[in-house]
Amino acid sequence: MKIVEASAACGLSADTIRFYERSGMLPEIHRGGDGHRRFAPRDVEWLTLLYWLRETGMPLKQMKRFTALAKAGQAGIAERRQILADHALALKAQRAKIETCEQVLAIKIASYGPRQSSETA
Q: What is the pTM assigned to this prediction?
């Protein structure tokens, strides 16, 4: 599939896909006879993973390390697992912080009393 189709399938813009390719974060993307990139389903799976890593706030430096380890094959599995486990813990901490923020906001909103009908307009 072409970059436009890969972009639609994974959620990343074509510009971001090109950036990730230039940054060395993608496997080698094959090109057709016309010189255009041709993405295989496995490439789209990788792009989708990169989308979610970035969407969850993983820094680019860490993503680059993760992708370098993936390119190294079996030798990098333990460190890749650790990177993902550490990121999952960071997300868990972030989730707890957000839940606390929501509780604080709920208390503050309740302190203003019931909502008046004129406030809805």
A: 0.82
